[in-house]
Structure formats: C-alpha cells, structure tokens
C-alpha cells in the first residue's frame, strides 16, 4: 500500500511541475505576441528599473515599453528624451536621438528577443 502512495505522490509532483512549465510557456508566448502586435511612437519621459531587473520606458503618450523583450540596449545609456518608434507586427524598435540642431536623428534599433 505504501508503494502505491509513493507512486501517486511522485506522479502528482511530476504532473504539477510539467503543468507549471507549460503554463509559463503559454504565458510567455502570449506576452511576446502582445508586444509584437503593439505600436509605439513617443518621447521617453522616464526610464525606471522594473521588478524583473530590466528597465521600463515611459513614453509621452502614456505607453510603457518593457525592455525585457528587447536585445541591444545598454543599461548605462539613458534613453530619456529620445524618440522611440515601433510599427505594429514588427520586432524592431527604432531609437532617435536629438542632434545639435535639436532634430531627431536615427541612433540605433533594438530587436525583440527570440523565444
């Protein structure tokens, strides 16, 4: 009887671990798809470290960009005052910085991290 109980306990633990992993993967895919379908255009008004250890960018149009989804950004570089643009169904955010004549010029692109 004890062996049956051990087997059942082991089976339940394994099933919970697998279902937790699958749930996490589904949520991650949903989050990436939502970000992929988003559109952004605005000036960065605030750059704040989020709870996940990545920075969140707050735009002038009240959008928030979570940099956890993007590759190619430097933690030491402030993006406050820069203009950001992302088209719908695009993996790329374009960053524009002001030049000496106060005109925004293309600076670099950040691409979404592949899942």
Please render the helix and strand layout as text.
Blueprint (H helix, E strand, L loop, with lengths): L1 H35 L3 E10 L5 E5 L4 E3 L3 E2 L11 E4 L5 E7 L5 E9 L3
Antiparallel strand pairs: 1-2, 1-5, 2-3, 4-7, 5-6, 6-7
Outline the structure in words:
This protein has 115 residues and is an alpha+beta fold. It is built from 1 helix and 7 strands. Strand 5 (83-86) and strand 6 (92-98) form a beta hairpin. The longest helix is centred in the N-terminal third of the chain and has 35 residues, at 2-36. The chain is elongated. 10% of the residues are buried. The model has no long low-confidence stretch (mean pLDDT 84).
Provide keyphrases for this structure.
seven-stranded antiparallel sheet; elongated; alpha+beta
- Strand line-up in the sheet with most strands: 3-2-1-5-6-7-4
* Quaternary structure classification: single chain
The Rg value, from CA coordinates, equals 21 Å
| Number of helices, where a helix is a run of at least 4 consecutive DSSP H or I residues | 1
Euclidean distance between termini CA atoms: 45 Å
Strand content: 25-35%
Q: Structural class, judged by helices and strands?
A: alpha+beta
SSE succession: HEEEEEEE
Q: pLDDT under 50 segments (min length 5)? A: none
The overall average pLDDT, rounded, is 84
Number of DSSP strand runs: 7
Using the alpha-carbon principal axes, give the shape. Answer: elongated
- Largest sheet, strands/sense/barrel: 7 strands, antiparallel
| Helix fraction by DSSP (H/I, runs of at least 4) | 25-40%
């Amino acid at each position: 009887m004890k062996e049956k109980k051990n087997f059942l306990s082991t089976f339940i633990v394994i099933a919970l671990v697998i279902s937790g992993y699958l749930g996490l993967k589904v949520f991650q895919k949903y989050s990436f798809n939502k970000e992929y379908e988003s559109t952004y255009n605005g000036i960065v008004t605030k750059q704040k470290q989020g709870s996940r250890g990545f920075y969140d960018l707050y735009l002038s149009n009240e959008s928030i960009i979570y940099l956890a989804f993007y590759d190619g950004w430097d933690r030491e570089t402030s993006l406050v005052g820069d203009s950001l643009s992302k088209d719908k169904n695009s993996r790329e955010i374009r960053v524009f910085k002001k030049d000496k004549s106060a005109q925004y010029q293309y600076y670099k692109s950040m691409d979404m991290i592949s899942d």
